[in-house]
Amino acid sequence: xxxxxxxxxxxxxxxxxxxxxxxxxxxxxxxxxxxxxxxxxxxxxxxxxxxxxxxxxxxxxxxxxxxxxxxxxxxxxxxxxxxxxxxxxxxxxxxxxxxxxxxxxxxxxxxxxxxxxxxxxxxxxxxxxxxxxxxxxxxxxxxxxxxxxxxxxxxxxxxxxxxxxxxxxxxxxxxxxxxxxxxxxxxxxxxxxxxxxxxxxxxxxxxxxxxxxxxxxxxxxx
Length: 222
What we know:
Helix content is 32%, strand content 14%. The protein is of the alpha+beta class. It has a two-stranded antiparallel sheet. α3 packs antiparallel against α4. The longest helix is centred in the middle third of the chain and has 20 residues, at 83-102. It starts with a helix and ends in a 17-residue tail after the last helix. Residues 1-222 form the Protein kinase domain. Pfam families: Pkinase.
């Protein structure tokens, strides 16, 4: 824990200040070699993962505008999370991770749970305690659903492993569901990724099954 806190402080001091996808480090301390701490702004909106979970309902019904009735019943069906907002989150996450890589930092634990939202629902990437700075070893690795299969004897993160985790995070942003959220067995997820079998985006693309039903990914709590 102490090594991770020191690592995160080093990374915040290493990165140029002011990037919009990261919180500013307000203060830090490392006293007597026995304890350390870091202070970051508090964002009450919480994590992107929580926001996706709490707003996973596809549509809400609101009174139709004067411009027309979308349903014929005096109401309009509006997405809780608009496609534009999902696209914004995707672009902002890519921007933030690209900034880290540009400055020699591998995040090593990319996922929506490690992203905070501000009052405008803008993305702020957090939890760099286990990230890899330069030639240092990683102090953590990705969660199972975001982990690119590799030799477990060398878990140091790379640009490639970060991009894999970023891709799985974009899947969650687009669908609202965790990658293979319906699978509990960690080994099964690992084996599927190793066989290059990935969660389907068919429902997002509007693909229908043999019975003509729109295929949908499992919900966040499936």
